[in-house]
Amino acid sequence: MLIGASYYSECWPSTNYPVDAKLMAQAGFNVVRMGEFAWSRFQPEPDRYEFEWMDTCIGHMKANGLKVLLGIPTRVAPPWLVARDRSMLIVNQDGSRAAYGGRYEFCLNNPTFRKAAAALVHAVAAHYRDETGILGWHLDNEYGVGICYCEKCAAAFQAWLRDRYETLPELNRRWGSVYWSTEYTAWEQIDTPRATENRQNPAVVLDYRRFFSDVTIRFARMAADTVQSLGDSRPLMTNMHSSFAPHNLDYYTLNRGLDIAATNNNFPQTDSGQMNLDLAHGMKRKPFWSVEQCVSGGGVPVMTTISRPGDARRWTYLTVGHGADAVIYWAWRRYTLGQEQFWGGILAHDGEPGRFYDELCQTASELQRLWPVLEGTDVRPEVGIINSHDCRWALDVELNHPDLAYERLAHSFWRPLRDRGITCEFADPEADLSRYRLVIAPALLLINPGIVANLHRFVQEGGILVVTVRSGVKDWNNKIASGDLLQSWRALTGLRIAEFFPLDLHPGSRTAQFMGSYEQVNVASSRSHPAGQEIVTADGFLPHGAYPVETWIELLEPQAEVEVLATYGRDYCAGAAAVARRRIGAGQVVTLGTVLSKDAQDDLADWLLAEASVQQPIRATAGVEVLVRRAAARQVFILLNHTDEAQSIRTRMPMRDPLAGTVIDGQVDVLVRGVRVLVLDQAGAPEHVIEPA
Ligand SMILES: [Zn+2]
């Protein structure tokens, strides 16, 4: 297994290299990630490249048995380059020019910048083509941050639109340009969607996000092609950002052109950070790499994490449990200069090894001993959560309610499943879904014929599809769905949305705060639709009969043969369908017309898992988190105790503890903030094979 650290060797004197390399080797590390921000050191002047400093560092790493994951640093241009053409600094949405000094503020459509970046990639790749100490290439860092709205981007956007729509009448029709008189009669009239007095057309804003994603992927492709054109076949990768927020980049398309999916994991203590790992696994549907694994938390601009004893070790197991086959910590040592001096590191500012170093020595040693049982295993998710970048961008443009973000709706399913030991995977809506038994589509706002057909096929063949509120609303141009597209969606769900509205339009509500002032909230509406709505469930659906609901109401009107699983209980909505099921082929579509409370989501998770015949490896009440990696005849259970109390669980079958060299048959303790790894050498296991003691 690959375990190591990120090391900005350009920030330390070369006398540190042998000391650091030796300490890394003594920790049991075998990989080091370097170089991704070192443009000004690789190319200090336009016509002068310098590699000796990195050659020296790589030499020390090799001498200590460490392989190098080498970054190609194209996202922070050195000042001499910016001085050539300051128009390479991005133009923000408000029309202002970005200042120099941060990161990611360079226009990827600027020819001066692109040419210089291509030359740097070629120089670095050519110099290290025959360097055996390099195991692979790390392209850039966190692609997808920053959007430019400059004139060069406008020209590139016009060309992109010509490719997509071919004629202006077609563009105007697809965009709905007639609204507010924005029908274009020449391509050059189309500008970047900068800030205006009111709002830009959502169709234009969405296309601009897509355009910029394509621009970024082309930029990454340039680097990948340059490396490969030199006959270099070592793996290519880049790191996805660690937050689950929507980025300006379609990660699925980006990763299709790369060899290994990799992500940062800066916030493993959060559900958002864990969901990001399940997103990373969904990129290639196989083990991924965590290349910025949290040691002791973020510190820019405020300290965000307390890393108690045991946390860095447990977060490492958590990452492996979600499907990582390589863990590279950020950072080797806390930096003493620059913009990230208070981010966590394995070594302290003064370079002294302390408890983090000791803890990760232990972790690396354990994982190398565990590798024979982990190698070849994977998480093998049976539940997919649809993740459409297009939908998330569209929701970004028009959220409709502060609590309807994709991340929140996805999390409302993800957390109850996680509590039951179920690992989900965030899936591209157009991917083959046949590997899942259950697919959840949170806020699938936009649809296109390919996605509807893909979901229909999944259900026809026996899958269970869950559709939430705000799904099937719009076409791929961010206009309300109509015609054949709408009919195909209604054929899938069997439903028409007769009415929809936010639920908490009352003074002091989040909606009121979201709108900026109470005066803007329609008080008459708040009286018509009071908070406190509930659903009443049919026999055989959720066990408690009635549940409060929140945030959003859609009144579902059956259009085809559907079974109503729940109706609204109050106000004029009483009796209208709130949850409905349509059976198609061997499968079913369950549509939720509202947002369920936490208790209801828990019960719904049990009901869905039973309907889909997905086994729960653990009872949700056990008090430990369980992640399972599987191979054909082996299951590896990773038990994590995130609490400050020892937890006891019971295994219903004998399992071996490979680290202790013992066999567990019955009760086992998971220490405070600790980890336990248990192995079952067979393919299947009974439901709830791990229970509370
Ligand atoms: Zn630009």
Summarize the structure.
With 693 residues, this protein is an alpha/beta fold.
Explain the overall architecture:
By secondary structure, the chain is of the alpha/beta class. The protein has 3 domains: 2-76 and 106-145 and 215-374, Glycosidases (TIM Barrel, Alpha-Beta Barrel); 383-611, Rossmann fold (3-Layer(aba) Sandwich); 620-692, Immunoglobulin-like (Sandwich). It is built from 19 helices and 28 strands. Helix 5 packs parallel to helix 8 (202-229) and helix 14 (406-419) packs across helix 19. The protein is globular and about 75 Å long. The protein starts with a strand and ends with a strand. 49% of the residues are buried. The structure holds zinc ion (ZN). Zinc ion binds at residues 90, 107, 109, 148, 150, 152-153.
Secondary structure category: alpha/beta
Q: Please, what is the CATH homologous superfamily of the largest domain?
A: Glycosidases
CATH structural architecture of the largest domain: Alpha-Beta Barrel
Question: How many beta-strand elements?
Answer: 28
- Give the percentage of residues in beta strands: 15-25%
Ligands, deduplicated: zinc ion
For this structure, what is the CATH class of the largest domain? Alpha Beta
Average pLDDT confidence is 94
CATH topology of the largest domain: TIM Barrel
Distance between the termini: 33 Å
**Main pleated-sheet profile:** 11 strands, mixed
The total tally of domains equals 3
Identify low-pLDDT runs.
Answer: none
Envelope shape: globular
Helix content bin: 25-40%
Radius of gyration: 27 Å
Please, how many helices?
Answer: 19
